[in-house]
Amino acid sequence: MKASIEVIEPRLFAGAVSDEIVASVREAIAERGRCSIVLAGGSTPGSIYRALSKPPRVEEVEWSAVTLYWGDERWVPHTDNMSNFKMTQETLLSQIPEPKPAFFPVDTSRASPADAAASYGAMIASNEKFVPGTFPTFDIVLLGIGEDGHTASLFPGSPLLEKASQSLCAAVEHPEDGKPRITLTPPALLAARRIFFIVKGEGKSDVMKRVLEGNESASVLPSRLFLEAGDRVTFFLDSGAAQHLSRPRG
Ligand code: 6PG
User: Fold this and answer.
1) pTM for this predicted structure
2) What are phi and psi of 113, to 5 degrees?
3) 84 lines ligand 1 (CB under 6 A)
4) Cα 211 from Cα 225, distance rounded (Å)
5) C-alpha of residue 174 to centroid of ligand 1, in Å
6) Ligand 1: does its nearest atom lie under 6 Å from the Cβ of 146?
7) Which of 7, 97, 180, 193 could disulfide-link to 242, CB 3.0 to 4.6 Å?
8) How far apart are CA 38 and CA 158, in angstroms?
């Protein structure tokens, strides 16, 4: 089964995507009593998080049964405007009424990015129940896509894309500015029950054509690695990001 692609008008995008997230969260809680969500960073998901943090959707989720993680983080303090945690704090966490979800940001106060990655992986491993030697099954992973095809902080040419690593989390460097980042690894992300890519804007239309209709390797376009997850993956695109796709979707 192939990944599904949902194309949504920009003005309806945040509502439609947040509705899908709410439905998946409710399903996970109904089936397993809890829901683990790996949050995406960057600028796109902010509107989705805001929609989730306000009525009616905020009242449709039993937030105390939700556990939040971050798919990647920049090596900056949580007070820094570049912090994915700060973005999520402002758009989601601070808005959700008590009882709030459990949330576990990457500890960027550790001695080094490598130390932060190791401690984040260990913390996830202690929170989530899974067979040693395998990977935790997050209920929902949210991901964005950069114009170079990266997702989380899995950048083109990254050795992590070989999936040889058994680590849950790794320290990497951004290929353009060399700044450190911490990212969950492909196997950790790929094990999820549901993987939602959230992509908006005409600026992503070229890369989305390449990701969804091309045949370049995952080393060149890391987001293509996730096509192997088949129908566990849904691409939510607004009409701008989808404008070069060859077949109408809906
Ligand atoms: C990050 C994200 C990154 C992001 C893409 C898209 O920390 O920046 O994890 O993978 O999702 O770069 O970013 P935009 O949503 O800002 O286009």
Assistant:
1) 0.98
2) -60, -40
3) yes
4) 9
5) 12
6) yes
7) 7
8) 21
